[in-house]
Design brief:
Largest sheet: none
Strand content: under 5%
Order of helices and strands: HH
Distance between the termini: 27 Å
C-alpha cells in the first residue's frame, strides 16, 4: 500500500510540473505552446 502511495505522489508531482509550466507559458506569453506538450511526451517515452 505504501508503494502505491509513493508512486501516486511521484506521478502527481510530474503532472503538477507540466501543468505549472503550461500555465506559466500561457500567463506570460498569452499563447499556447504546443512544444511543451510534445517535449513532455518524448520525456515520458524515454
Amino acid at each position: 500500500m505504501f508503494d502505491l502511495l509513493i508512486a501516486g505522489l511521484i506521478n502527481g508531482n510530474a503532472y503538477a510540473l507540466v501543468a505549472l509550466g503550461l500555465s506559466l507559458v500561457i500567463g506570460v506569453a498569452n499563447v499556447v505552446n504546443f512544444a511543451h506538450g510534445s517535449l513532455f511526451a518524448v520525456g515520458a517515452m524515454v
